[in-house]
Amino acid sequence: MAQDTYPVKLTAPDIEPYRAGNTGIDYVTTWDSGRPGPHAMVNAVTHGNELCGAIAVDLLLREGIRPRRGRLTLGFANVAAYHAFDPRTPTASRFIDEDFNRVWDEATLDGPRQSTELARARQMRPLIDTVDYLLDIHSMQHATEPLMMAGLLDKSVDLARRVGVPTTIVRDAGHASGRRVRDYGGFGDASSPKAALLAECGQHWEQRAADLAIETAFRFLAALGMIEAATAARYGAAGPSPQQRVIRVTDAVTIASDRFEFVRDFKGMEVLPQAGTLLGRDGDHEVRTPYDDCVLIMPSPRLSRGQTAVRLGRYEA
To answer: Cα 164–216–177 angle (5° rounding)?
Structure first.
């Protein structure tokens, strides 16, 4: 699969002023309103080369946004990878040792394995355990339609609808290679009131990704009653939401060999009308669409064994 080259139009904000924070965890700050309410968190740079979340959280901190009820945490996650970002080689700093967004299951967090990302996840875990509502801000390799990854549970889809953007909500089970932070603990438990969202705001380095990250963060906080609607409006995050639609992911194509290739340069969100359409080859195995009108979700440029090549879904009525 060809890897397109996209210009880096965003500037990574300097997050050094936020190193100390106030939680005992570097680059994590919590504000307590002193009034009853949930603990909400806006999280950035789960991947070090995804700048839009850093821009949104930097803005929230610079503007002194405070919760009118409950607690608000603003965090920068994989700071080691973020500090390694170089606009001359912008794809190189997704992570240092392993994907920070694949280590969030208890067995891995409690296990013996060591990495830069696991060390950081273990630092943040006690705070994440106290969060009721999480917005994890991401971006994508290709310039395709932004997505709100809501998981499979109705509670997260409901939260996505309250936030109102992006316009496409994806119900998915994550990745075989490891659990995401949005699926960790109570976020992925139907019996828990906690809920989490993962916003894919657009191509990594385009201006609209930063704009949507800011809008999504303010709409998220307004939906939870953490800020006034007038505050959200000042940052372009007010007014009626666009009509949303939902895609349910039915299959995740996990790469089984060391020789996976797509037959076309898929970007994502293509709708393939005929069941059985050839997508690619995993070694000697052909990968085909399982049904008519199959939607391709975020085909990956990182085609290695054990990773997700692409997710397949269909629009819900």
So the answer is: 95
Read off the pTM: 0.94
How many domains in the chain?
2
Q: Let me know if residue 5 belongs to a domain.
A: no
HSE of 65, CA atoms in CB hemisphere, 13 A: 28
Length of the chain: 317
Q: Is the dihedral of CA 137, 75, 241, 11 positive or negative?
A: negative
Which residues of 69-226 form beta strands (DSSP E)? Answer: 71-76, 133-140, 147-149, 168-171, 195-203
Task: Provide the token pair at 225.
Answer: 């009653």
Give Cα separations from 88 to 5, 6, 9, 85, 93 (angstroms). Answer: 11, 11, 12, 9, 11
Q: Do 234 and 255 share a structural domain?
A: no
- Condensed to tens digits (0 to 9), the pLDDT of residues 123-178 reads 999 999 999 999 999 999 999 999 999 999 999 999 999 999 999 999 999 888 89
Rounded Cα distance, 280 and 277, in Å: 9
Output the six-digit token pair for 252.
């995740």
Which tokens go with 154? 């109705």
Using the structure block, give the residue that is written with the tokens 């912008």.
90
Same domain, residue pair 218 and 253: no
Looking at the fold, whether 149 and 102 belong to one and the same domain comes out as yes
Helix (H), strand (E) at residue 294: strand 294-297
- The values of phi and psi at residue 57, to 5°, are -70, -40
